[in-house]
C-alpha cells in the first residue's frame, strides 16, 4: 500500500494536472468547433429554436436514466441484489460525477459508492462497470459503422469518422476478448499484462498485476443466460431511446433526422466524448455533434443551427444528470466527503482484496 502521508499531496497534484489537461483539451475542441462560424448566426439560431421539442426531450432523458440503472443492477445481481433505492442513488450520483469531473474520473464513482464489503466488493462493482462500457462500446461502434453506409461517398470527413468507428469497435472487441480470456484463464491474463507492462515500469507492473488479479476475480460471477439476454435487450432499447430523443430535439432546430442519420450523429458523439476533456465534456461534446451533423445534413445550416442544437443537447443532458444526481448527494446512500477520492479508494480496494485473496489461497 502507498504511504498514507505521501499519497494525498501526490494525488492532489495528479488531479490538478488532469484538470488543467482537460481544460486545455476542451478549449482546443471549442475553438475548432467555433472556428470560422458566425457567432451572431448561432445566437439567432438559439433564439429562433422551437423549445417545445426540448420539453418533449426531457421524458427521454428520464427513461435513459431508468434504463441505465436497471441494466447495471442486472450485472450486479449475481454478487448482490442492491435495493433499487440505493442503486438509483449511486447511479444518479455516479453518472453526474462522470459528466462533471474531468478526464472521465467519474467512472470510478459508481463502483466505489455501490461497494459494500464483504457482500459486494470493489472488484465486482468495477467489473460490472467495465462490462457495461464494453457492451456499449461494441454496440455503438457497430451502429456507427452500419449507419455510415447511408452517407454518400465523398462526404467531407466520412473517411476519418469511418476509420475512427472501426478503431473504436476493434478496441472494444479486443477488450471483450481479453475479458473472456481472463474469465477462462486468470493466471494467463495477469501474466500477459505483466509482461507487457514490465518493460515500461517494473514497479507499476507488479502493483498493477495485483489489482488486475483482483479485478478479474470480480468477473468470476456472471448473470444467468436469461439475465444476459435481458441485459443486451435493455442495451438495445437504451440506445434506441437515445437515438429517438436526439431526433425529437433536432426538430426544434430545423433538422429532420431519419433513423440512420440520428444513429450517425449519436455514434460520432459517443466516439467524441471518449476523448478525455474538461468538466462536463465541454468542447468534445459539441464538436462531435456538429461533426456528425455535417455528415448527414451538409450545408450552411449546420454552422449555425447545428452548433445551437449541439449546445442545447449538451445543456439538456448535463442539466438532467445534475438535476437527478444532486438531490442524492445528501441522501443516506452517499458519502459526499469521499466522492472525489473514488479513484484512489477503488485502487486501494483492489489492492486490499488481492491481499485477502492471496492470504486465503495460502491457508
UniProtKB/TrEMBL annotation:
The chain crosses the membrane at residues 16-34, 54-74, 86-105, 126-149, 161-183, 228-245, 257-277, 308-330. It holds the Pfam family LPG_synthase_TM. InterPro entries: L-PG_synthase/AglD. The keyword Ligase does not apply. Keywords: Cell membrane, Membrane, Transmembrane, Transmembrane helix. It is a multi-pass membrane protein. This is Flippase-like domain-containing protein.
